[in-house]
Design goal:
356 residues; 10 helices; 33% helix; globular
């Protein structure tokens, strides 16, 4: 089937008159493949090379326009179509699954008890660099990546020290060997935060990220927990802006269907409906525009970040996730709580941190 698709697409591009021209510049593709550690052979190579040049043409044509506010750039997604990008990297769900999940979400809505200043006041804040930019690889694990980043960000702001937690532990131990399944109902940031609350995480150094489905590598939870989590529904620009200013970065849900080749600038080419291209990310600042940190690595976008236009761009105000403030309590970890699997490092017993 793939051979037929590749042949059909190749014939189509030859008919358009630019396939042979691109083959003459095959070194561009080879350099890209070498840079990103990709190897293709036979019909698969022809197919992926064709997509690469088609995407390159799209990027070049976009960047020549004078009516756009952002530029596209080449990155690790050059040899996949947009349909593949959505399927492979975003947490997509069927309409029925989405409706069921929305019912659960609306049962867990939190409304802030804090009085919000309704004046047109601005609190510019930029938390970029507080937590490292992660790279989910070829697994749609933004739900786990963003959940750990949310906890790490709060800890970094309030304790002024860095912490990197294991997203892979959430994927392995909470999802029952389905951590990279974009259609699995349990692969949500809400469930990921629930796992951290109820079980606790090990640091990433003890439970490293592999970006693939595997069995849980621990028989108990880890030492880093949160006390509570909640989410707000349909917040306002001022509410989220003031929360960012007075507290720390927050986990949000966005429509990332057209983020594939974002390179730089202010992006607004998206829908406020996040159901079709749901992606979990960290909003890390606001200065008349939103600063957002996805988990596509530092080679994507502006060193791993994207700037979104103000307002509910890409649905950034639809769902905002919170965890309780941090207060440190130290307790020893029992031997039973240490990691048992041989493929994990023999970690030193780490103090138990409870978020109070």
């Amino acid at each position: 089937m793939k051979n037929i698709i590749a042949a059909t697409l190749t014939t189509f591009l030859i008919g358009l008159g630019y396939y042979q021209e691109n083959l003459d510049s095959a070194s561009d593709f080879e350099r890209w493949a070498l840079k990103h550690g990709k190897s293709y052979y036979g019909d698969e190579k022809i197919y992926r090379q064709t997509i690469y040049y088609q995407n390159k043409k799209t990027i070049d044509e976009h960047n020549k326009r004078t009516d756009v506010t952002y530029l596209m750039g080449e990155n690790q997604f050059m040899t996949i179509t947009n349909e593949e990008f959505i399927r492979l990297y975003l947490n997509t769900k069927s309409p029925e699954q989405q409706n069921n999940q929305n019912k659960v979400i609306r049962k867990n809505i939190h409304k802030s008890l804090e009085t919000i200043n309704k004046e047109n006041k601005k609190w510019p804040i930029d938390w970029r660099g507080k937590v490292k930019v992660k790279n989910q690889g070829s697994c749609p694990s933004s739900y786990a990546m963003s959940a750990t980043s949310q906890v790490e960000a709060e800890y970094a702001v309030l304790k002024e020290t860095s912490l990197t937690l294991s997203a892979q532990q959430i994927m392995d131990c909470q999802t029952m060997f389905r951590g990279c399944d974009p259609n699995y109902d349990g692969n949500t940031a809400w469930d990921a935060l629930s796992y951290i609350e109820n079980n606790g995480l090990y640091p990433e150094s003890s439970y490293p990220y592999t970006g693939r489905d595997q069995w849980c590598q621990v028989n108990t939870g880890g030492p880093w927990k949160i006390k509570n989590r909640w989410r707000t529904f349909s917040t306002t620009v001022q509410e989220l802006q003031s929360d960012l200013y007075f507290y720390y970065p927050y986990l949000v849900v966005v429509d990332a269907t057209k983020w594939q080749f974002y390179g730089s600038g202010i992006f607004s080419d998206c829908s406020s409906d996040v159901s079709q291209g749901k992606y979990y990310a960290l909003v890390v600042g606001f200065e008349d525009i939103w600063f957002v940190q996805p988990s596509f690595g530092t080679a994507w976008g502006e060193s791993g970040y994207i700037r979104l236009a103000p307002g509910n761009t890409c649905g950034i105000l639809n769902f905002v996730y919170h965890v309780d403030f941090i207060k440190q309590q130290i307790h020893p970890i029992s031997k039973q709580e240490s990691i048992q699997q041989e493929n994990l490092s023999n970690s030193v017993l780490i103090p138990f941190l409870n978020y109070l």
